[in-house]
């Protein structure tokens, strides 16, 4: 939506009229001879203005530096996936250094050849799978990269708890795409081992960053045998546990603030349903560990709690 709106409103001014836009007085300068005609930006609200500016800068670069592609977090944003941060830094790869890039806050990367790219509304953007690998390889925060890749996998595969077989098949295909892209880069690619670890342990069943962070801590601690979206039938109901050790019947549920609603009535109703759900799962023999963001600030304590619960079931 943002790219479509900006593409309609972008203006490239001829050199002869560089110093004035008499025909479009409401235009604002983006950079060089690139302007944005504000009245053409329909259905844009104030919260989207940072994204409009980012998109406009992308179009400016696309028209002034043609041998380049948008990569990494910025490419994921342009494809419509969650980026970290929400308004990512503008990062490009170029196969030539013949032109200087003077736009502020642009991080250029010189490459021998451009990565696999797609043409999105006139922009050359790293393909979704290539962008995911770029993030997985280059992120200085492996936890954050893992969570982001999991959530993207959830969206990429259209993961559906009620169609688990199809969802897992789509997940397998998603991971094959990522693995193929990592193989294309070769064994000498920077950050290859980190990206490989993320691909191996990522799970498209993680529907939120919190659920993905829980899985990361379990995997990083060397625990095995857990699955996401474990289906449990009890008391005539069907439940899906965020992450569970099926052999020991130990489940881990992430409690994010958003799941409970945004007013007192919805929060009360959600908590009531959660308590009923907990009772039903425990009656079916499950031990449930509830985790919030504050627990993830102390992962060692969480892992100790999980190990203790597993040991008690085995003992």
Provide an overview of this structure:
- With about 325 residues, this protein is α+β, with helices and mostly antiparallel strands.
- It is about 45% helix and about 20% strand.
- The chain contains eleven helices and twelve strands.
- The strands form four sheets. The protein has a four-stranded mixed beta sheet with strand order 9-10-11-12. Strands 1-3-2 form a three-stranded antiparallel beta sheet.
- Helix 1 (about 1-10) packs across helix 2, helix 4 packs across helix 7 (about 190-200) and helix 5 crosses helix 8 (about 210-220).
- The longest helix has 22 residues, at about 165-185.
- The model has no long low-confidence stretch (mean pLDDT about 85).
* Count of alpha and pi helical runs: 11
Residue share in β-strands = 15-25%
User: What average pLDDT do the residues reach?
Assistant: 87
Q: Helix content range of the residues, please?
A: 40-55%
The major beta sheet can be summarized as: 4 strands, mixed
Contiguous runs where pLDDT drops below 50 for at least 5 residues: none
- Gross geometry: elongated
Radius of gyration: 23 Å
Total beta strand runs: 12
Q: Please give the alpha-carbon distance between the first and last residues.
A: 56 Å
What is the helix/strand order?
HEEEHEHEEEEHHHHHEEEHEHH
- Give the spatial strand order of the biggest sheet: 9-10-11-12
Structural class: alpha+beta
